[in-house]
Amino acid sequence: MRAGLVLCLCLYSLLLLGGCASQRPVLYPSNAQAERSATAEQAVDHCMRMAEAADLKNDPSLRVAEKTVEDGAVGAVTGAAVGAVTGNAGRGAAAGAAGGSAHGFMRGMFRAREPDPLFKAYVDRCLHERGFDVIGWR
Q1: What is the full DSSP assignment across 87-132?
Q2: DSSP-derived 3-state class of residue 65
Q3: What is the DSSP string of 15-60?
Q4: Adjacent-strand bridge partners of 25
Q5: Helix (H) or strand (E) holding 80
Q6: Which residue has the higher pLDDT, 54 or 9?
Q7: Torsion region of 17: left, alpha or beta (phi above 0 gives left; psi -120 to 50 gives alpha)
């Protein structure tokens, strides 16, 4: 019982941390851009708002749910196959589904703060058109 409570608290903490932090583009520090750092931040904010308005930012909670279901299904099939060989396909499927779902959930949580690739491409292009070079996201 106590271990379950600790696990729930850890997962809840990860949810909070994953939901609070979002990635932003990192710009190449050229001389012209260094002189207009406030303008650069405004351009980043503007381009990100435009991408959101274009409905390119996926809901991270949906991606977490997708990964959880996807890995749960893979785990169930794998567990059933192992269980069939060892003599209990049903138990193997249940164990595989639980393990796969846990894996998918955690993988989804750690990747939830990553913007959708189309969102990133839109923001990168928007900034490039304004004279800024994006060297990555963090």
Answers
A1: T-HHHHHHHHHHHHHHHHHHHHHHHTTSPPHHHHHHHHHHHHHTT-
A2: helix
A3: HHHHHH----EEE---HHHHHTHHHHHHHHHHHHHHHHHTT----H
A4: 137
A5: helix 60-86
A6: 54
A7: alpha
Return the structure tokens found at 95.
């164990």
Q: What is the pLDDT of residue 111?
A: 64
Alpha carbon distance 47, 127 (integer Å): 7
What are φ and ψ of residue 131, in 5° steps?
90, 10
More confident residue, 129 or 115: 129
Instruction: Give the model confidence (pLDDT) of 9-34 as tens digits.
Output: 455 545 544 444 589 999 988 755 55
CA pair distance 24, 84, nearest whole angstrom: 48
User: How many C-beta atoms lie closer than 10 Å to residue 110's C-beta?
Assistant: 14
* Model pLDDT for residues 61-116, shown as the tens digit of each residue: 766 777 777 777 887 788 778 778 888 878 877 887 788 778 777 776 666 667 88
Beta strands 134-137 and 25-27 are: antiparallel
Entry pTM: 0.57
Task: Mention every residue, 6+ apart, whose C-beta is less than 8 A from residue 58.
Answer: 116, 119
